[in-house]
């Protein structure tokens, strides 16, 4: 009896079906529908089922928008920035949580206060040029570490608390080096947190649009988001191609979401509660 | 930040580093190991300092200059001139922008939370396919502003889009994102659409933490669904309300990437964030004035968030 | 005690891969080839032919690769691309518009962005380039500051009304020469259930109403100011935005806008030529740069042209012409030598002729024969008209809000929507105008 919820509710079910179907499923289905229509059909009758089915739209969108380049850029940026952010956050959070270093409180406080400060896009743009981070891959990656780093730090501090300090001491007594201890013993213990922060940071980097607009100048360095936006600028009225482009950009995200759904949902949930 | 959650025991919210426990040595790792520790902290600390703290603090300083970032155009310290301009010759734009920002943020905060409560309440019931619905509503959170923006631009395409066809049934026709009347409500709608799932999840987790017995007792007492929600559910999820309201308020005040995709700030959607971005990177290119707008947005965010947070915390304390 | 877990192993491996991978990408040995980066805004015909020209350039100079980048539209994302490019050092050749005439007292407060960059040494001096003498001196002057030629003006556009000849014949309509006749024509078309006028504002904003207010200013207001130079009269205070002529202009603009296609604010500017070619309206308000796109969309279409008749005195109703795409070489660009080579290549007779014939502008190069669709359509008006330089002042990018180039047109739309009256708008423009022209 303890775990019984309220009784099955027909009203709630109908509400949810309609709500999701109209607002969430329909737009995605329409997107796919347009992506498979011929330009002629879209102009004449966009709301009917595609006939003939134009798989060619996907090929053309991929080719015309040079998505191959953008795609590999997105993968590089997201992968590198996420891994670096998580690594930096772990390296910072552990000594601070343990207060192994002087000024731990100050570091912690500044991280929390960091959330309070105003949007720094203008100074970041200036800095990116002064530090030669502007318009190159390494710079772009470095500029995208900060978000995941802050989140990860706060997250990991909470997680490290659950690891008894005695473990550190026995490791040190056994002559286990600090980095080996961190990688071989501590990290496996906080795997869920690593996954959560990693996914969170990766989605943010992958989806960033303002970043590439401000920090990148060359087409060949653009990630998918910026590439798609440029494509939209040049093909505004060719919705069948555009829809195919949107679908190409959205599908890896949808796929990743289906596979990692639990992590996404739990991650964002605990993420929000921890902020 | 302001959205710091209530100290929910279940969520394991972080507290400052644990105080020094008696007997524990500060330096478990010594010598080379200690050096390795310091060394490993360096990259993160440097990135955080240089690309996190410095830019945030520098906004205030840049707002006191007329720096354009264009080589050859002299940059001077101009004191509060940018602020004076914002309240004089730029005021028509700034005033509109503040109104747009507040309308956008308040509508998003209220509607998003009311709708999320409704959806969460439905999801809480014993309904088949809960996980599917929950996932579907959450999906936009991973799609990103570019995909979301273009998707809705397709739906609200004034010539032949499904929304236009639907409205034609009522003999209504509009330019949607190109309309002075409809652009802002539609941008608000898309913003809510993209972040609703998140808000729902927080409410749902709050609801699931409420002991089932409370609902059962209420039901046995013959309470109507509305009364159970009003007197049991809603008060019991006060901490979730705090989180959701604060996150929605602060988040929506600072949104501009979605607006950049949908309208670029045209048609009364020029929120302060958008205005800041376009001033700095499109219009005059005056980074100083852009930073001034950024500081104004920051001030408004604090002015809204801090009292709101205090109120919501007090409300929690009163209820729980 | 080796109990390395797969997770830690993966972490370490990917860290190494990341650092190594990124390093490899960034530090790959510099190829022996050079690059020249060219940016411009999206005007589909120009983009198409420039891609072809770039390929031919690379063919002639195999060691120089052209990086060609565009953004749409000129008012929005391209402004951001320009703005970030001018601050960075990544772009060699940038597409802009001519800078002249400058305000009487140029300063940071009243120059447009392009004028500001030109007067602050961000464009290289081109006087000694081999092509300069081949281009018309009067056109070169529009891009000259203190004796320094700062760009290559590719040609002159013409702005006005393009009409569907078949539709006009079907309803027995003839080209109107006065404002009254124009409105009567629009009413006539509307009675037949035909959309008279087409102009799309989506993604470009009310600036595209310039196809209406600019000719009106030229025809109704300009003849009545000293020296028939409205730009100078406004910039020196000889006339003001509160002039009764300007009030009349806004009233007429509002009337004309009633004959635009429904939801013109939501129609993408890029689909204008295609929609016109599809017969969605009898007339298209546009510049000659879009004619090539009309022709591509419907090669059989018969298109005619007349200047938008804003005045009831036919003699004043002539088209407006203006300097089109202008190439400047950025002073902080990485490869000046290659940029000069590219400009020289672009301006060589055969390449330049390809460009002009494809995009349909009036050439700025001396001599040569050109055959474009636009030339046929414009007929006697090809390259003829009143220069926009004596009509509309280049509005500043900063300063009084409503006088800024990006905000000024918003009020024109507000007049149409009934939010403000023409008188109120005139006052809003004039209120801080003295500060702009000071």
What layout of secondary structure does this protein have?
The complex is a heterotrimer of chains A (275), B (320) and C (438).
Chain A (H helix, E strand, L loop, with lengths): L9 H26 L3 H6 L11 H9 L2 H32 L5 H11 L6 H10 L6 H7 L2 H15 L4 H9 L4 H12 L1 H17 L2 H6 L8 H11 L4 H21 L1 H14 L1
Helix pairs in contact in A: 1-14, 3-14, 4-5, 4-7, 4-8, 4-11, 4-13, 8-11, 11-15, 13-14
Chain B lengths: L31 H31 L18 H7 L3 H34 L5 H9 L1 H16 L6 H7 L14 H26 L3 H9 L4 H12 L1 H16 L3 H6 L9 H10 L5 H33 L1
Helix pairs in contact in B: 1-13, 3-7, 3-10, 4-7, 5-7, 7-10, 8-9, 10-13, 12-13
Chain C lengths: L5 H21 L7 E8 L2 H17 L3 E8 L5 H11 L5 E4 L16 H7 L17 H5 L2 E2 L2 E2 L2 E2 L1 E10 H6 L8 H13 L5 E2 L11 H12 L8 H7 L7 H14 L14 H6 L5 E5 L3 H7 L5 E4 L13 E4 L2 E4 L6 H11 L2 H11 L2 E2 L9 H6 L7 E2 L20 H9 L5 H10 L1 H5 L1
Parallel strand pairs in C: 1-2, 1-3, 8-9, 11-14
Antiparallel strand pairs in C: 3-12, 4-5, 6-12, 7-9, 7-10, 7-11, 7-13
Helix pairs in contact in C: 2-14, 8-10
Describe this structure in words.
The complex is a heterotrimer of chains A (275), B (320) and C (438). Helix content of chain A is 75%, strand content 0%. By secondary structure, chain A is mainly α. In chain A, helix 4 packs antiparallel against helix 13. Chain C is α/β, with parallel strands linked by helices. Chain C folds into 2 domains: 34-153 and 325-360, D-Maltodextrin-Binding Protein, domain 2 (3-Layer(aba) Sandwich), CATH 3.40.190; 158-321 and 388-437, Periplasmic binding protein-like II (D-Maltodextrin-Binding Protein, domain 2), CATH 3.40.190. In chain C, the strands form 3 sheets. In chain C, strands 7, 8, 9, 10, 11, 13 and 14 form a 7-stranded mixed beta sheet that branches. A 5-stranded mixed beta sheet of chain C has the order 2-1-3-12-6. A two-stranded antiparallel sheet of chain C has the order 4-5. Chains in contact: A-B, A-C, B-C. At the A-B interface, helix 1, helix 4, helix 5, helix 6 and helix 8 of A face helix 1, helix 3, helix 4, helix 5 and helix 7 of B.
**Mind telling me the C-alpha Rg of chain C?**
24 Å
CATH class division of the largest domain in chain C: Alpha Beta
Total domains of chain A: 2
Instruction: Tally the helices of chain C.
Output: 18
- Shape of chain A, please? globular
CATH fold description of the largest domain in chain C: D-Maltodextrin-Binding Protein, domain 2
Give the CATH level 1 class of the largest domain in chain A: Mainly Alpha
What are the segments of chain C in which pLDDT stays under 50 over at least 5 consecutive residues?
1-31
| Proportion of residues in helical segments of chain A | over 70%
The overall average pLDDT of chain A, rounded, is 85
Write the CATH architecture name of the largest domain in chain A.
Orthogonal Bundle
The overall pLDDT of chain C, averaged over residues, is 87
The CATH homologous superfamily name of the largest domain in chain A equals MetI-like
Of all protein chain pairs, which has the greatest interface, and how many residues does each chain bring to it? A-B, 117 and 113 residues
Structural class of chain A: mainly alpha
Give helix and strand order of chain A, one letter per element, not per position. HHHHHHHHHHHHHHH
Compute the gyration radius of chain A: what is it?
23 Å
What is the helix fraction of residues of chain C, given as a range?
A: 40-55%
The shape of chain C, in one word, is globular
């Amino acid at each position: 009896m303890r775990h019984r919820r309220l009784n099955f509710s027909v009203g709630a079910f109908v509400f949810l079906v309609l709500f999701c179907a109209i607002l969430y499923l329909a737009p995605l289905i329409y997107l796919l529908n347009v992506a498979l229509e011929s330009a002629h059909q879209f102009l004449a009758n966009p709301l009917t089922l595609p006939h003939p089915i134009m798989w060619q739209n996907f090929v053309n969108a991929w080719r015309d928008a040079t998505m191959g380049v953008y795609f590999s850029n997105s993968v590089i940026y997201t992968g590198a920035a996420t891994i670096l952010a998580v690594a930096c956050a772990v390296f910072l959070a552990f000594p601070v949580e343990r207060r192994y270093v002087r000024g731990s409180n100050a570091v912690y406080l500044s991280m929390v206060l960091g959330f309070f400060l105003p949007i720094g896009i203008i100074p970041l743009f200036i800095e990116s040029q002064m530090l030669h981070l502007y318009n190159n891959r390494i710079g772009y990656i470095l500029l995208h570490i900060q978000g995941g780093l802050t989140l990860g730090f706060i997250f990991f501090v909470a997680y490290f608390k659950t690891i008894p300090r005695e473990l550190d001491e026995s490791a040190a007594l056994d002559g286990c080096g600090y980095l080996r201890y961190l990688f071989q013993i501590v990290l496996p213990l906080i795997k869920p947190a690593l996954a959560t922060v990693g996914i969170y940071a990766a989605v943010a980097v992958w989806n960033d649009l303002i970043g590439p607009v401000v920090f990148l100048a060359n087409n060949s360095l653009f990630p998918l988001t910026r590439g798609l936006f440029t494509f939209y600028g040049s093909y505004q009225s060719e919705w069948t191609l555009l829809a195919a482009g949107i679908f190409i950009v959205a599908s890896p995200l949808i796929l990743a979401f289906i596979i990692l759904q639990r992590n996404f949902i739990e991650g964002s949930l605990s993420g929000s509660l921890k902020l | 930040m302001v959205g710091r959650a209530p100290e929910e025991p279940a969520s394991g919210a972080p507290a400052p580093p644990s105080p020094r426990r008696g007997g524990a040595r500060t330096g478990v790792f010594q010598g080379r190991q200690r050096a390795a520790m310091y060394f490993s902290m360096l990259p993160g600390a440097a990135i955080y300092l240089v690309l996190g703290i410095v830019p945030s603090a520098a906004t205030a300083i840049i707002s006191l200059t007329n720096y354009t970032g264009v080589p050859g155009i002299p940059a001077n310290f101009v004191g509060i001139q940018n602020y004076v301009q914002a309240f004089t010759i730029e005021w028509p734009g700034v005033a509109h922008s503040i109104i747009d920002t507040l309308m956008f943020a308040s509508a998003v905060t209220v509607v998003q939370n009311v709708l999320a409560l409704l959806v969460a309440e439905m999801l809480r019931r014993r309904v088949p396919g809960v996980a599917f619905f929950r996932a579907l509503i959450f999906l936009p959170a991973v799609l990103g502003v570019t995909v979301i923006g273009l998707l809705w631009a397709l739906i609200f395409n004034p010539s032949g889009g499904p929304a236009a066809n639907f409205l034609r049934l009522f003999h209504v026709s509009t330019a949607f994102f190109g309309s002075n009347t409809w652009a802002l409500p539609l941008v608000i709608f898309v913003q809510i659409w993209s972040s609703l799932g998140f808000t729902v999840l927080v409410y749902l987790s709050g609801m699931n933490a409420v002991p089932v017995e409370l609902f059962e007792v209420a039901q046995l007492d013959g309470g109507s669904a509305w009364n159970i929600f009003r007197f049991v559910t809603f008060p019991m999820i006060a901490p979730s309300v705090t989180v959701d309201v604060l996150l929605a308020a602060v988040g929506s005040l600072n949104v501009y990437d979605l607006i950049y995709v949908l309208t670029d700030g045209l048609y009364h959607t020029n929120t302060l964030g958008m205005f800041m971005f376009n001033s700095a990177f499109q219009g005059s290119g005056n980074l100083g004035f852009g930073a001034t707008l950024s500081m104004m947005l920051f001030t408004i965010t604090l002015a809204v968030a801090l009292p709101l947070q205090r109120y919501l915390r007090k409300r929690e304390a009163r209820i729980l | 005690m080796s109990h390395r877990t797969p997770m830690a192993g993966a972490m370490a491996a990917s860290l190494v891969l990341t650092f190594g991978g990124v390093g490899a990408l960034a530090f790959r040995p510099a190829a022996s080839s050079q690059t020249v980066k060219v940016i411009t805004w999206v005007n589909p015909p120009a983009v198409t032919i420039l891609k072809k020209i770039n390929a031919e350039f690379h063919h002639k100079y195999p060691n120089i690769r052209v990086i060609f980048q565009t953004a749409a539209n000129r008012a929005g994302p391209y402004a951001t691309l320009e703005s970030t490019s001018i601050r960075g050092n990544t772009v060699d050749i940038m597409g802009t518009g001519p800078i002249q005439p400058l305000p009487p007292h140029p300063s940071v407060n009243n120059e447009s962005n392009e004028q500001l960059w030109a007067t602050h040494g961000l464009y290289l001096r081109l006087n000694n380039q081999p092509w300069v003498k081949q281009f018309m001196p009067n056109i070169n002057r529009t891009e000259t500051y203190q004796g320094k030629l700062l760009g290559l003006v590719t040609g002159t556009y013409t702005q006005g009304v393009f009409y569907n000849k078949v539709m006009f014949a079907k309803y027995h309509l003839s080209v109107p020469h006065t404002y009254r006749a124009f409105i009567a024509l629009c009413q006539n078309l509307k009675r037949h259930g035909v959309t008279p006028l087409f102009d799309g504002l989506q993604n470009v904003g009310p600036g595209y109403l310039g196809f209406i207010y600019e000719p009106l200013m030229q025809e109704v207001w300009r003849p009545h100011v000293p020296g028939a130079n409205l730009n100078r009269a406004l910039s020196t205070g000889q006339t003001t935005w509160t002039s009764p002529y300007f009030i009349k202009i806004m009233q007429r603009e509002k009337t004309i806008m009633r004959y635009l296609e429904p939801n013109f604010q939501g129609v993408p500017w890029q689909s204008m030529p295609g929609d016109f070619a599809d017969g969605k309206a009898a007339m298209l308000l546009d510049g000659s740069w879009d004619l090539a796109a009309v022709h591509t969309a419907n090669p059989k279409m018969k298109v005619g042209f007349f200047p938008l008749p804003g005045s009831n005195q036919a003699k004043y109703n002539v088209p407006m012409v203006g300097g089109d795409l202008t190439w400047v070489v950025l002073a902080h660009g990485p490869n000046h030598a290659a940029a000069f080579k590219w400009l020289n290549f672009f301006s060589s007779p055969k390449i330049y002729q390809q460009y002009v014939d494809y995009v349909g502008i009036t050439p700025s190069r001396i001599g040569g024969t050109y055959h474009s669709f636009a030339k046929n359509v414009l007929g006697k008006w090809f390259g003829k008209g009143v220069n926009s330089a004596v009509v509309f002042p280049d509005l500043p990018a900063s300063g009084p809000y409503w006088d800024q180039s990006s905000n000024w047109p918003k009020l024109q739309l507000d007049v149409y929507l009934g939010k403000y009256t023409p008188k109120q708008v005139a006052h809003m423009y004039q209120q801080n105008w003295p500060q702009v022209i000071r």
